[in-house]
Amino acid sequence: MLALTDSTFAAHVASADRPVLVYFWATWCPPCRMVAPVLASLAGELAEVLEIVKVDVDEAVETARSQRIMGAPTLNLYRKGELVHSMVGARPKHALLRELEPHLAPS
Fold it and tell me: What average pLDDT does this structure show over 85-89?
C-alpha cells in the first residue's frame, strides 16, 4: 500500500485513473491494526478497479485536517479527487466489499 503525505495526497487522489480508497490510520490505533491486513488483501484482489493507499494521521496532519478526519481508522473513497463515500471504524472484509461495491462500477 502506497503511503501518502501532506505533499502527495491531493495530487495523487486527483490524478488517479480509478477510485482511490484512502486508509487514514495511526500507529497507536488497535482497530487500524485489525483492518490493515483486510485492506492489504483487498488491494491485491481489486487492483484493476480500486487503488488503496494509506495516510498516517500523525504524520500528515494537514491532510487529516483538510479531510476532516475525526477518528482512526477512517476509510475515504475518492473518485476523480472527490469524496464519494466515507467509513469510520474497522469492518470485516465482506462488510467493506458491500459498502465499496456500488462505487466501483465505471462512471
Answer: 96
